[in-house]
Amino acid sequence: MKLKQIKLALVALATTTFFVSCSSDNNNDTGTPAPPVLKTEVNLSTSATLGSYLTDKSGRSLYFFSTDANGQVSCTGGCEALWPAFVVDNLTADKLGTGLTLSDFSTVTTASGKKQVTYKGWPLYYYAPVSGGDGYGNGGVNTPEAAGKTTGDGVGGVWFIAKPDYSIMIVKSQLVGHDGKNYKSDYTVGDGLTTYFTDAKGITLYTFKNDNFNKNNFTKADFSNNAVWPIYETDKIVVPSILDKSKFAVITVFGKSQLTYNGWPLYYFGQDASVRGSNKGISFPSPGVWPVPVKDIPLAI
Known about the structure:
The protein is α+β, with helices and mostly antiparallel strands. 11% of the residues lie in helices and 21% in strands. The protein has two helices and 15 strands. The chain has helices at residues 2-30, 79-82, and strands at 42-47, 51-56, 63-65, 105-109, 115-119, 122-123, 130-131, 141-142, 159-161, 169-176, 182-183, 193-198, 248-253, 256-261, 264-265. The chain has a three-stranded antiparallel sheet with strand order 4-5-6, with no helix packed on it. A three-stranded antiparallel sheet has the order 11-10-12, with no helix packed on it. A three-stranded antiparallel sheet has the order 13-14-15, with no helix packed on it. The protein is globular. The model is unreliable at 1-30 (pLDDT under 50).
């Protein structure tokens, strides 16, 4: 009798398990599916040498291009294969990683019609260097940079890792004075690109020829002339990798912090009106009085 009872119990258990399993499967078929987990399209990664920088959802690095001074895409033609545009459809706050703000992002239309994502006014790119071939540019293919790599930073002195906290950026652009004339790097009239410093959003910075080493000789104690040449007020020193960070310093000007480079205090020009790419101050009141800061500017005295 005991053996028979055990057999009957096993049969009952198997029958119960069968119906429970069927009932469970049926509930999954008719119930509401769990919502998909959203992947963030833009994130912040960290490097021991570069600090915090922007990456895509796969961990691939994103970059700025210095010649995008006015916020428009200047990487066209063959450049697009080497530096592909970063494109995301309908970027929303929930697609951004921790530490990123949606208001810093926008899009700009490229020459090929793509809606390229911008960050703080800078179009964002990937790096896809040519690999293979015969060593002379023949037969090679553009291979996207692998996740976690930052080999595009500093390329040509004009490509830089996209960071969220730059206090200085580098642009390469034509100088156009408030008089409407084009100027070369030596402040003579003519065409030619000049490589100089801006703030994080690409707004042009200037130096004053009458200043001394880490000494602002322009700004008045009551800041009554600050609207004409506003001081670049910051205490942060986060610069592109090709610049020597030790050449930057922060001075105090009547209670406010002003950034200097090679001893030259840095300013904005009021008539630029915080417009990206505008550099009208290079000819006001005359060319050379308020030059833009450049990497090899002589040490102030």
